From TrEMBL:
Record InterPro entries: G_ERA_dom, GTP-bd, GTPase_Era-like, KH_dom-like_a/b, KH_dom_type_2, KH_sf_prok-type, P-loop_NTPase, Small_GTP-bd
Short name of one Pfam family: KH_2
SUPFAM superfamilies: P-loop containing nucleoside triphosphate hydrolases, Prokaryotic type KH domain (KH-domain type II)
Chain intervals for the UniProt region annotation (G5): 198-200
Main location: cytoplasm
BP terms from Gene Ontology: ribosomal small subunit assembly
CDD domains the record matches: Era (cd04163), KH-II_Era (cd22534)
GO cellular component: cytosol; plasma membrane
Membrane-related topology note: Peripheral membrane protein
Record region (G3): 107-110
UniProt KW keywords: Cell membrane, Cytoplasm, GTP-binding, Membrane, Nucleotide-binding, Ribosome biogenesis, RNA-binding, rRNA-binding
Organism listed in the record: Tepidimonas charontis
Region (G2): 86-90
Protein known as: GTPase Era
């Protein structure tokens, strides 16, 4: 490993902890703004022996902002987000190559502790699989908060991998003076390598976090092409974007146990022809998805299609169906059939 990139060791003494706090709190918070795509200039060729490449897992309980952070770190929307907890259901890899460094971010579903159904068991397995064998873990919590669900995720983290405490949604914290004692109390829970209070919606914070992550990336050849953004297929992204619109446009009415299955994905010249089914558990849910006179389903389809067209820069024909499959989320075989590992 290159000496100039050796990571800061986990603080051991009170003085080191105070220095870490000072570094964390010295970063001036600013008002949040939406993060748009980042224009990354085409990187100059980097010889393999100078390349650095590392895996960074993003973990935390549902709804703390992991996917928002992944998208901001990559500079493109790779993982879907919504106000609804449990939006992310798969291990999603987001790749960013800058200069000699390739960051491979791994977003995970929020670790589920409440319901023990087959879907949640599959989601939890995905989280555990993602945190072993990484170079760095970003443990995301909401700044100033820590509850049992956070504690359960923290307890799963392997020893021997540096963990940065990302205290997200700092823009929502009214009393900033309470952050220092809270961070101090967090260090008693785990020997964090660094504290990082931030807002995933604030580009300056994201840029600083990226610079901090870079210190933990080892020297080794890149695993992906420099312009790769994800290892997920177009078919997968199509299903995910439909699910995002479904969750966003139905709000809290629709239980999280609804999913989207892509039945067909075909290229016809520059056109992508996609057929997908929204799977719900009850007839009443079907009504919610379809809406009055089919209005809601139409909107879900239009918004997903427009976003996919922007993403791929080409025409998309998207056909959506709604199907009732009661009890699918507690049926191991169906959970697997619908693509959950
Ligand atoms: N105010 C504020 N809201 C944020 C911030 N980061 C994320 N959010 C919002 O928090 C909600 C949840 O964000 P997600 O990125 O979907 O959270 P997640 O942790 O991936 O959620 P799961 O998929 O349930 O695991 C969304 O409404 C985001 O817009 C932030 O820094 N500040």
């Amino acid at each position: 490993m290159n000496d100039s990139h050796v990571a800061t060791p986990t603080p051991q003494t009170p003085a080191e902890l105070e220095a870490m706090l000072a570094r964390a709190l010295g970063r001036a918070p600013a008002a949040p703004t939406e993060v748009g795509p980042v224009d990354v200039p085409a990187p100059a060729p980097v010889p393999a022996e100078a390349q650095r490449c590392g895996f960074i897992a993003i973990v935390g309980k549902p709804n703390v902002g992991k996917s928002t952070l992944l998208n901001a770190l990559v500079g493109h929307k790779i993982s879907i987000t919504s106000r609804k907890a449990q939006t992310t259901r798969h291990r999603i890899t987001g790749i960013r190559t800058e200069g000699a460094t390739q960051f491979v971010f791994v977003d995970t579903p929020g670790f589920q502790t409440r319901h023990g159904n087959a879907l949640n068991r599959a989601l939890n397995k995905t989280v555990l699989g993602a945190v072993t064998d990484v170079d760095l873990i970003l443990f995301v919590v909401e700044a100033g908060r820590f509850d049992l669900a956070d504690a359960k995720v923290l307890a799963l983290l392997p020893t021997g991998v540096p963990v940065i405490l990302v205290a997200n949604k700092l823009d929502r914290v009214q009393r900033r003076v309470e952050i220092a004692p809270w961070l101090r109390s967090m260090q008693e829970r785990h020997p964090f390598a660094e504290f990082f209070p931030m807002s995933a919606k604030q580009p300056r914070d994201v840029q600083r976090l990226l610079a901090l992550c870079e210190r933990y990336v080892p020297q080794q050849p890149w695993l992906y092409e420099p312009d790769d953004l994800t290892d997920r297929s177009e078919r997968f992204l199509a299903g995910e974007l439909v699910r995002e619109k479904l969750f966003r446009l139905t709000g809290d009415e629709l239980p999280y146990t609804s999913t989207v299955v892509v039945d067909r994905f075909e290229h016809e010249g520059g056109l992508r022809r996609i057929a997908a089914t929204i799977v719900v558990e009850r007839d009443s849910h079907k009504g919610m998805v379809i809406g009055q006179g089919g209005e809601r389903l139409k909107r879900i389809g239009t918004e997903a299609r427009q976003e996919l067209e922007r993403l791929w820069g080409g025409k998309v024909f998207l056909e959506l169906w709604v199907k009732v499959r009661s009890g699918w989320s507690d049926d191991e075989a169906r959970v697997r059939a619908y693509g959950y590992e």
